[in-house]
Amino acid sequence: MKTPFVKDLAAEQVITGFFLVHEKEIRNANNGKPYLRMELGDRSGTVEARMWDQFDGMAKGVSRDDFVKVQGRVEIYRNRPQLLLMQFRVARPEEIDLGDFLPHTKFDVELMYRELLGHAEGMQNPWLRQLVLKILCDAEVARRYKRAPAAKVMHHAYIGGLLEHVVGLCGLAKHIAVHYPELDVDLLLTAAMLHDLGKLDELCYERAIGYTVEGQLLGHIVMEVETVGQAIEGIVGFPQQLKTVVQHILISHHGEYEFGSPKLPMIREALAFHYLDDLDSKMAAVRAALAMDAGEEEWSAFSGALGRKFLRLEKYLAEEEKKAGTESKAAKE
Amino acid sequence: MKTPFVKDLAAEQVITGFFLVHEKEIRNANNGKPYLRMELGDRSGTVEARMWDQFDGMAKGVSRDDFVKVQGRVEIYRNRPQLLLMQFRVARPEEIDLGDFLPHTKFDVELMYRELLGHAEGMQNPWLRQLVLKILCDAEVARRYKRAPAAKVMHHAYIGGLLEHVVGLCGLAKHIAVHYPELDVDLLLTAAMLHDLGKLDELCYERAIGYTVEGQLLGHIVMEVETVGQAIEGIVGFPQQLKTVVQHILISHHGEYEFGSPKLPMIREALAFHYLDDLDSKMAAVRAALAMDAGEEEWSAFSGALGRKFLRLEKYLAEEEKKAGTESKAAKE
Amino acid sequence: MKTPFVKDLAAEQVITGFFLVHEKEIRNANNGKPYLRMELGDRSGTVEARMWDQFDGMAKGVSRDDFVKVQGRVEIYRNRPQLLLMQFRVARPEEIDLGDFLPHTKFDVELMYRELLGHAEGMQNPWLRQLVLKILCDAEVARRYKRAPAAKVMHHAYIGGLLEHVVGLCGLAKHIAVHYPELDVDLLLTAAMLHDLGKLDELCYERAIGYTVEGQLLGHIVMEVETVGQAIEGIVGFPQQLKTVVQHILISHHGEYEFGSPKLPMIREALAFHYLDDLDSKMAAVRAALAMDAGEEEWSAFSGALGRKFLRLEKYLAEEEKKAGTESKAAKE
Amino acid sequence: MKTPFVKDLAAEQVITGFFLVHEKEIRNANNGKPYLRMELGDRSGTVEARMWDQFDGMAKGVSRDDFVKVQGRVEIYRNRPQLLLMQFRVARPEEIDLGDFLPHTKFDVELMYRELLGHAEGMQNPWLRQLVLKILCDAEVARRYKRAPAAKVMHHAYIGGLLEHVVGLCGLAKHIAVHYPELDVDLLLTAAMLHDLGKLDELCYERAIGYTVEGQLLGHIVMEVETVGQAIEGIVGFPQQLKTVVQHILISHHGEYEFGSPKLPMIREALAFHYLDDLDSKMAAVRAALAMDAGEEEWSAFSGALGRKFLRLEKYLAEEEKKAGTESKAAKE
Amino acid sequence: MKTPFVKDLAAEQVITGFFLVHEKEIRNANNGKPYLRMELGDRSGTVEARMWDQFDGMAKGVSRDDFVKVQGRVEIYRNRPQLLLMQFRVARPEEIDLGDFLPHTKFDVELMYRELLGHAEGMQNPWLRQLVLKILCDAEVARRYKRAPAAKVMHHAYIGGLLEHVVGLCGLAKHIAVHYPELDVDLLLTAAMLHDLGKLDELCYERAIGYTVEGQLLGHIVMEVETVGQAIEGIVGFPQQLKTVVQHILISHHGEYEFGSPKLPMIREALAFHYLDDLDSKMAAVRAALAMDAGEEEWSAFSGALGRKFLRLEKYLAEEEKKAGTESKAAKE
Amino acid sequence: MKTPFVKDLAAEQVITGFFLVHEKEIRNANNGKPYLRMELGDRSGTVEARMWDQFDGMAKGVSRDDFVKVQGRVEIYRNRPQLLLMQFRVARPEEIDLGDFLPHTKFDVELMYRELLGHAEGMQNPWLRQLVLKILCDAEVARRYKRAPAAKVMHHAYIGGLLEHVVGLCGLAKHIAVHYPELDVDLLLTAAMLHDLGKLDELCYERAIGYTVEGQLLGHIVMEVETVGQAIEGIVGFPQQLKTVVQHILISHHGEYEFGSPKLPMIREALAFHYLDDLDSKMAAVRAALAMDAGEEEWSAFSGALGRKFLRLEKYLAEEEKKAGTESKAAKE
């Protein structure tokens, strides 16, 4: 693991370390002199860095999204640490452990992927099984599926987050299909496995989580409808109606036009899957909100994704017990 | 079972039978002469009835929501049957089987209620268990709970529908609590059992499904928040914070202000329960839509509750198979 | 041209003619006897038809969307003509002129298609020219493009309407590109030609205008994004970025999420094209509203597409002139 | 009155004074060393306070919402005063005058409460009079009613503000009932007195204005519907229908679902009262906006509650007079 | 008073009477023969009239909005009366009493107008007093002001309704200005008197209530802002700023953009007046809803203007008393 | 041209120059001492200025919107330049070139105005031609029309911007009228010339772009409807209906109530013009967004007016070519 992390930078330290370049620009100081300003980061946060002299040569070879090795001194500016650079260079690949730069699911991605394949192999419908296995066994898809986050900020926003979300949905789908026997579990599983496939390319997450230009122009729904369509076209004899059904479930899974679904769910499984996806995303968003502290004992941080904060139930109920304890003690005395 | 049902009335028949009075009024004919007009119904539909002469004495004793025994002749007016009354009187209670007048769940309400009590008795949290058992074991609550529909038109709109919905939610809650171990299953079960308790009094469903005046002025959410509050106040030592939590889950279960929830779910279980309740209602609404035929082979009737129609998946996929069958046969020939 | 048209049916006539079956069902009369009810139509309107006896054999061979030859008598029922069928059979293809059954653009579709190809051939960008020509020169596309309406009811809702709309947009695009030189006219033309390509399959318009099941489940935007994607994949060397740009313009052309665009226009040409498409659709909707009379001299019929009625400008201004004329005449006298 | 107030802190002063602890936390400086940071306040504003050394013992005994006596030096940091603490301790109750810490109505709360009781005693309807007097004469209710603000920020956001709002509404109700004789003035008065009763517990305002956890989870409407329901249950013979009417007026007084009313006003008095409440709140919000200066001579500060700024009418009209004066003088010369 | 009124037409009667022509058209019967169809009405309702033979000469001289004298026989068609015309001619002015054709305020318009002028003369601000008197004393304005309804359907939809609404608002304004001394009562009175002035020309109400073409194209707000502007320009020395203030109050009185106000109220009096106008309109709409019976004892008819029905409070509360009475009687026995 | 511009101020410089006073106030320092704070600006930006001693005499004569000549030293405060004033006085008119203080269209306003008059003179409708020429030839209108911006921030937000927008719309109108021959080009030209006439007085733009009080209270739509109405009233014989048509087009040109149009377009030309105006505004807003750099190579700055950012099409397509170039080079090697 790299040292130091941004969150550990202490004033007046002189440090040597590796960081990702989030932004890089040449600015003019108020006296008209140019200086180099970069925003450097790792998975623990970001820090501003400046270099005032003789940065021309070094700056030339470095671009946004490069990893750099820097030497500098930590100063405090407006109460926040800032790096005064002495020197820096592009890092060599072997010097970098990507895990230092992006937050990561706490589950084992290889295990999860195997679980996912298990769900796929257990499907009864031969066309759907063939379809999802064809896609999931593609080496490049698998490579990206094991890394992709489920979103930039809303939920499961970390490496492996998409896979965690999808595996969770497969389990949930099986529970629901037991409860509502009218639902076709294979369609639900197909939906779970493919509904965010477009995110593999909508997002970029090699070094930081962001959107690709294609992702911004098309969105994962349109991207995956084409990818899945192509995969289906490559399967001889795949029923045309079933293709339409699968594509409908993909494009309607956001449930509302305003969330980018060009069609509302008009198939029972499409409606049910929309609920499952929404529920799992929201449960993850609550989890993330509760994991953050905003200074109120009984409340989570405000969740932008949900537009509210959440009660820390145990804390709130415990207060009472504490009080009750005190009172019963008082009563005894 | 009564005969004839409204749906079986045939032109020119003279019939004797029992009906519920939905509307009753004296109108003036175009020639200024008063006549009696009633809307009569049973669980199969409604029919207009008129009486032109000497109805004064008979009409006096009959009001809306009375059951009547009528004798009349079926005429066709504007292509629909109409009853020309010869005589009628209020029916005696022992002449009426309520089941003839309202649609009914196809499940056994006594069995379902026992299942519900089983869920209640299995709860771990002593306060919540005591609360729900106190309410569910109240004889008047039990009597009404076994009859109440879940809604007038949206979903489970039949006698016993509420109980069917609630028992379904209990099962769903247990599935979900297995999948998301962070959820407190007892809170979910309490929510399932009490979230529509106010509907016992918001709706009237002795003879037809409608809203009481109190129901229209207060709504089931406000009604049950008070009822449950009173039940809690009667339990010595019930923790005050837990009362607030339960009431919050009740008032937020519609999930949005515009659906009449004065607060958004701000507790994890409240959010999850809102999804379960919504999902189960929608699945029932889809079921109801698919059960109706609107003349399009591949599509259900339009669902007012969902604002769309639904694909009959099997029909649609079967077409292909048929076609495929034909084609492969053609190919062989 | 066929005789008689529905709008010409007169009471007590006995007629022989050809109609399209819009609906067909067996119903029970009030006396319990089954009868056959069909809705028959041609481009002038629809009429209800009934047959009371011995229809079994004839009815068996006839389905919705068949053309039938019928013999019957026109009766007036509830002030509207109704056909009392004596006999009917499925029509032979050579007996039918489709033009009798669907409204049609008043322009020559062959001429318009040639004009469209002319616009395509004049494009400067070799990739875009190759793309649109590849699609437009496909025989099946051309055949359907010359028939498809632009919508079921909103605008250009007649055979050839889509082509009329698209050719109009090409002309409009060229005008606009002269006015705003920053716009790439080839992208605008490509957008015009391909933005409703999915409607060729979203709608069915062989005998009446409706939606296909695929059209309802996917919508023309998703359908064409895949079709165009496939066409591009078949062109060796087509730049990947340009593909994304074309697809973005297609999916964003409705301009708002609530109108089914999964992305808002984020390219200058996409935004401009959205305005052109909207303007041309609205101008056609106004034209259609003004063509209908709703009994108010100065106002058009209410346009459902636009949510309002439109002033008949000439009528309104002429009133004044009339009045002015009268007054000046009065003044002279 | 305490000295100094936050708004009077001047650079380089060494002061001793009393403040309320709004926030308290231990943070790590950039050099890793922990320091104490508190936000201290009184009714004139808030100030940041820091202590760098040996704060452990003192900090332990102090929590948010405590009053503290501090000794410190005022420094200017980023152009704002900051307190560098030398020492502090929890204040003794007798050292604190709560009026120093919260803004206060300029009216006499005892007088206003007597006026309120006068309105109550003058009511004709014996049930409603008994109900409101029972509630208003409860010692704990009276104590809180004389302190509660009407809101945290929107209007009447100061100690005694709720009472001021309610007494104003009683007067307004009487005016309106004279103008619209169809309105039942006793229902309007009851609405005025009870519609915000839940705010006594929804808000906390002992030391600063905020929301209680119960208030956030339930809201004042739900809280008061239960409280008032309990009070009614305690009055023997109180008509059940009248209870429903009163509760309906309470729950519908926000007038719209989106403002947290689970029912729309469906009783004439409920609708009228909603308008009165809204009008009085808005008039107070305008008053507050006009009391603040945002640097534009003719305009008030922007009112968040109203989403706009307001014209200073006199200023604007006076300009003209000034100008007119100048001009008429000029004309004379 | 005319006889018979539409509501009194009885089957098989032969009648002679006066009616207003709402619609007139020549239609083709199903047998192709033309016939005359008119919709005739008076203040009690409308009736369809037909003439099958020799109507050419008579029909030529008659247009929509003419009064006609007709002779005909009342037939019942689809359960509603219909007039079979024998002959008719345009009525002579002296034969017509307009009061028979339009509903009318129950107050004396001359008295109300004098009250209005009294309010105007009592104003302190000389400019505003001069302005409103100039307008209200204009003979043509006065003539129309005494007739105009306040709306076509929403509230005060009858002859003299506007005046009733405005006089009511003047009284309300004075009440409010006593309660909120910060409000300038003269501005409120000016607003009351002029805020619907444009309705004198937006609506037509000589024979039936409708919209003029100008009214539909411009609306009363724009119409009155110009009229009032012109009146002000004709007053020498009227302060320019005060003109802007008056016009602002006029254009903002609907309170929201979506209700056609191009500006939100940004002056205290404009905001207050918006509330008064809204309250008075809604109170009138409730009154109208309660005056209509929709067959539910405790509820008014559904009010389209308010989107709900209203409780008949006295009926609802009386039930209880009745019940209570019965019970107490029972108790005694 | 003035020196220095705000954007060129460098630390530690002592400068003498001319600036516009945006804000001026006396504040109390933290030590209680009053100081002068002004915001000074020119077309390149704004800078904060302070004066700590002996500013009383100088400050008295200076107000917001004055031009001042100042002498001061540039200091850096919180990383931004700040002016420490030594002395200042009001500038003499002859010392100021207004072009230094406001951004300006890059086109020649005199040429554009002549082009506008050319469009006006070419109109066929004598009444409309007379109307627009009467207005455009008014010297004061012409003077302001040559300066006014089209908006404060949304589009064409610079001196001469309104004229640029209007001349553009005239050209666009002529293009469209060729394409849609049903449109009356003279009405479109009249709309173009007069639709923002009210902005001449709604905005103030002598020294900086802002809103006048009248502009905020009435808005340009209401202002111009009155101005144009007055101009029409001055033309003897101008048809009343045509006046209504012109005013309708003016008030409906925003197209939606929520954008301040009190009526929706109900005339064909009104609808078409709304689209042209909207299109031209949006094209200008895109142009402005693309002219700003927000640090992402392929994307424009975020446009507040459009709620999104825009793709830099050439950059994005060029990447591919670059890549393609590299690849083909690689392929050759």
Give me some keywords for this one.
homohexamer; about 325 residues; alpha+beta; 5-stranded mixed barrel; two-stranded antiparallel sheet; 11 helices; 7 strands; globular
Concise account of the structure shown:
6 copies of one chain form a homohexamer. The first copy, chain A, has 333 residues and is of the alpha+beta class. Chain A has helices at 56-60, 109-121, 126-136, 139-145, 161-179, 185-194, 199-202, 213-233, 240-251, 268-291, 313-332; strands at 14-28, 34-42, 45-51, 67-77, 80-90, 203-204, 210-211.
Task: Provide a descriptive summary of the structure in words.
- The structure is a homohexamer of 333-residue chains.
- Chain A has 333 residues and is of the alpha+beta class.
- Helices cover 44% and strands 17% of the residues of chain A.
- In chain A, the strands form 2 sheets. Chain A has a 5-stranded mixed β-barrel.
- Chains in contact: A-B, A-C, A-D, A-F, B-C, B-D, B-E, C-E, C-F, D-E, D-F, E-F.
- At the A-B interface, helix 5, helix 9, helix 10 and helix 11 of A face helix 5, helix 9, helix 10 and helix 11 of B.
Question: Which ranges of chain A are low-confidence, i.e. pLDDT below 50, for 5 or more consecutive residues?
Answer: none
Strand content of chain A: 15-25%
Query: Distance N terminus to C terminus of chain A?
Result: 56 Å
Compute the CA-based radius of gyration of chain A: 25 Å
Oligomer state of the chains in this structure: homohexamer
State the order of secondary-structure elements of chain A, H for helix, E for strand.
EEEHEEHHHHHHEEHHHH
Largest sheet of chain A: 5 strands, mixed, barrel
Q: Kindly state the percentage of residues in helix of chain A.
A: 40-55%
Tally of alpha and pi helices of chain A: 11
How many E-type strands of chain A? 7
Biggest sheet: strand arrangement of chain A = 1-2-3-5-4
Helix-and-strand structural type of chain A: alpha+beta
Biggest interchain interface, per-side counts: A-B, 43 and 43 residues
Q: Shape of chain A, please? A: globular
The average pLDDT value of chain A, as a whole number, equals 89
